[in-house]
Amino acid sequence: FKEEQMSYLYYKAINWDEIEDNFDKYAWEQLTSNFWLDIRIPVTNDKESWEQLLTTEKQQMSQLLASASLLACLQSEFGTPMLRGDKRTQQEEAVLNTVTFMKSVHAKSCTTVFRTLLTAQQSKEAFHFADYEPNLQKETEQLIAVFQSGTSLQKKAVFILTEIGLSVGKYYPILKQTNLANLEQLVLNILRGSEIFCAYIGYKFRLGFSELENKQQEQIKSWVENFFSELITTETAFLTANNYENQDLLNLCYWGTNYSLNLLGMGPIYSVKKTSLIEKLERIFIDQNKFSQQVAAANNEADTEDMTDDDYDF
Known about the structure:
The protein is about 70% helix and about 0% strand. The protein is mostly helical.
């Protein structure tokens, strides 16, 4: 049949040699090269160091890790699927499917850690905390409301904030430890994956944003800044209510929020102190300037040079 005679078909096979947006392929290769599984990280090797921690330290880490897992579940079961209806290309669906799966891995990692380091009762208590903590539930309600009724750009913005701004602080107690190497590696794997997801979603956000009139751009920018501020207020209330608030942790949350805004092409809204932990995260995250250059190169119609492995090195 001629192509015009097949227009009634809703589904068609994905031809990865016919790409509307080369960055879809670029992101797919980044995601698959970053693939990992929680069961392959020997967290059990941290058991001895874990037992030497104070009871309060272990409780804080387990409760916040369960809280991060709650957000990962929301992203895999609700957030990412809500982005599919706004896809711009058929390949984007495939990329989002990969993101959905990896968010499930991120969520499952919490159980893997708890099975190794906690008793069954301690694990149950940590998950119960995340499931019923009032401020955390308010946070998820705010997120779900946007995923249900927000615009395409609003949903993308909230996805990014959830992945980085609302999550990175919950990993702070683990990241600041020096004797939990495997648990730290697991968290860094999660954050590295989240950052790749968000770089891709941020790129799609900026495409849609560029198509808006100036007035509409100002409206979405104002909405993003206000909503991000509201969510960080809820996050701060969550941390304060459970005695987790400290300046370094909040500073990390603010950095994550500013980083999320940067991915959307917007300026920072919080003042952030550069710390050794933030410098470490910046080293494992992608270089945004190089990233932008590679996006442009991937979609430059005049650039017909074959891509090499070095092109995928952030």
